[in-house]
């Protein structure tokens, strides 16, 4: 398997810097969840068609990755896990929650149960604080257009659940690769915007701390100047009560008064 950061150009300079070999700036982890036979694997294949170098099919999940260029110009490598765990056994899926960036929950428009399962997955992710960014994707609308009697969930029902869960939704199908790509791209943009917001908050916090440090240093300098004006020494403020010279001076005065007191009749 080729590493995504390897440059296979034989004419490339062997002394090329490491930074020039990095093909992406950020890494996001996405889970695809939903009821059985809802089309999770088909949606993933529509976004990243087979065969793909990073495909790793296991007994309970399928993994793929893709480098995406976001609107800001940032290149993000997206790790996508199609998890086949059942909602009745959420502990099998929770092992995938670590470092999770977002989730896409698939709704099968031809199965009424699928809508309830999707809502339960949203509640599961929220309860476990797994991720903030969730997208509901209603699948198989192409079948519903061809055979209207197959539709068991209408668009209004999906919209109502999306409002209750406070998440966006899209109705599409695995054969419409463009719409699937738009769905993934919208989720990734929202994740990226949050990352930028967190970065800005950290920058503001650092600036505030730096400002406080500068303010304190300036305060020490002002105190040092005042001490210098009254004969207290150098400009550098050192929080000492008395200098050595002053201690010696006061000890001398004390010795004189003490000797005088002893000699009193």
UniProtKB/TrEMBL annotation:
Q: Which domain of life is it from?
A: Eukaryota
Q: Keywords in UniProt for this one? A: Membrane, Nucleotide-binding, Transmembrane, Transmembrane helix
Family matches, as InterPro entries? P-loop_NTPase, Small_GTP-bd, Small_GTPase
Molecular function via GO: GTP binding; GTPase activity
Locate the transmembrane regions by residue number. Answer: 247-264
For this protein, the record's NCBIfam families field holds: small_GTP
Q: What is this protein called?
A: Uncharacterized protein
